[in-house]
Target: C-type lectin domain-containing protein
Amino acid sequence: MKIISFLLLSLCLLVNSQIDPDFFDLTTDDTELNVQQSISDTLTIPKCPENFIEYQNECLFISQEDKTWTEALLECQQLNSTLLIVPTKVIIDYSVQLFDQLGLDGNYYVGGNLSDSKWSWLNGKIIKSEGPWWRNCSSESINECLEINAIGLSPVPCENYTNKFICQKSAKVSVKSSSQNIDEECNEISKCQNGLSCINSQCKCQDGYNW
Model:
């Protein structure tokens, strides 16, 4: 009997020594599963206001009427935006892609003008007065602004000249969880989550936009 007991004990020790210690670690696996589930339940969606088009993480407003450059700038500001600023030094590549993907044609005012004999965007970044991005030779006359078409920039008068224009603003990125949807009912007890606000007993985006 002693020999049998000894053999059984040895066998148990041998089996235990070969078991992976992580076999009993259920907490790690559960945590990883919860993280993966959380990621799968979350969706990031860029959002633009009405009449704006989402393009390369920006919201663009393409005007349908002609205005002077100054009038165009004011209208963009009223839309909480600014005239388009090309976000790269490779201006022709950007303009070709922009006009092709959005199906644009013709010329549009953009957010650049001549100040102190230097061309610059409205954010202060300088535009070199010589380069392949100029469709026509750049000018250094007073009161000059910029228009763009598919093949580059051109200087045009800021006043006494009208053109269509493009406004620009950053796209609002919203995070939506599948655990709660817009228009879901809410009250003082059942509150909204994920940044939604309880408006007229329904969960809504606070600024009024829907995803």
About this structure: The chain has a mean pLDDT of 76. The two ends are 75 Å apart (CA to CA). The domain at 53-170 is CATH 3.10.100.10 (Mannose-Binding Protein A; Chain A).
